[in-house]
Amino acid sequence: MIFDVSVALTWILFLALFPVSFYWLRRAWRIVVRRDFSEVALKRGESPPNPARFAPYAAAINLVGAGVLIAAIIGVVTGEYAYETWSAMAGSTLWFKVLADFILARHAHPVRSRKRAAPAGQ
């Protein structure tokens, strides 16, 4: 095996799966076990009006994402998955998680229409 840029990037991607999956599992643990909703559906750093309502969805997103990454890690270590398989699993899971969190945060913070004040004297 010749060490070049693609091999280095492959190792970086594989090693990055460990802290990312740990972080997602820790977020799910905080939501499910500790009932800490401070990181649920944040939009510009603010929690929604009722974060407990969206906590099960955030926990599920984190658990599914971490589970797929752990499956990819185990598949690489055991030699079960080829490079194309585990890198596709990891990449699509990362994007799925980012987009799912974005969608949940936008859904939890509804857009409120601003009503114009009635002119004085009416």
UniProtKB/TrEMBL annotation:
**Organism of origin:** Azoarcus sp. (strain BH72)
Q: Which domain of life is it from?
A: Bacteria
Listed transmembrane segments? 6-25, 54-74, 86-105
The taxonomic lineage of its organism, from the top, reads: Bacteria, Pseudomonadati, Pseudomonadota, Betaproteobacteria, Rhodocyclales
Keywords attached to this Swiss-Prot or TrEMBL record, sorted alphabetically, are: Membrane, Transmembrane, Transmembrane helix
This chain's protein is named Hypothetical membrane protein
